[in-house]
Amino acid sequence: MRGNSLFRPFLLRRSLNFRPFSSSSSSFTIPPIRTPKTDSSRPENPYPDYVRDHPAFADYLSGYPRSFEPPKFGFEAEIEEPPVPPNVVMVNSDEEFEAALNKTEGESQLGIFYFTNKGCVPCRFIGPVMEELARRNPHVTTYKMDTEAKELAGTVEKLGITTVPTVHFFVDGEKKDEVIGSDVARIVLTTRDLMDG
């Protein structure tokens, strides 16, 4: 055990090629940094003239062709939004709202009035749901209204719309129910109940 401890510093010094500083040597010199040698026989531009004059050479050096477009993946080309169903009608003014309300009264059918606006995040979530609901119930008309439209200010104030999305259900010109917020399950169930009743 003692022999191992005596040889350990010697072996460590030998393996690391370590020389301890003595008290007499107070300074040491740092070797100069070697710079790579340049080959003067090598040309500055190794490409021949016919390559440098080619129009695609600049594209090769830049890494991108001049008509560069980001690559499209297969699934991006395949995804297409389905068209808006014909029974989803945009209402753009107070007069159009009154005409739509009179139509639901005359036909004795369910009319869904969907209030939304472009800056509403829950409306972006519920919008495709409303379109799919209209697609599955072609005999029910969904009237879509933008609450930020100035032409609909009277209707929004008259119905007391303060939150979007808001969905009103009218039968025979009379409001039967309403859903405030993006409660998809309640919208679907209310539609089904009013259609069955």
Automatic annotation (TrEMBL):
Q: Which domain of life is it from?
A: Eukaryota
For this protein, the record's Pfam families field holds: Thioredoxin (PF00085)
- Show where the Thioredoxin domain sits: 89-183
Extract the ranges annotated as region (Disordered).
21-48
Q: Where is the composition biased (Low complexity)?
A: 21-32
Q: Which InterPro entries did the record assign? A: Thioredoxin-like_sf (IPR036249), Thioredoxin_domain (IPR013766), Thioredoxin_H-type-like (IPR050620)
| Name of this protein | Thioredoxin
Q: What is the lineage of its organism?
A: Eukaryota, Viridiplantae, Streptophyta, Embryophyta, Tracheophyta
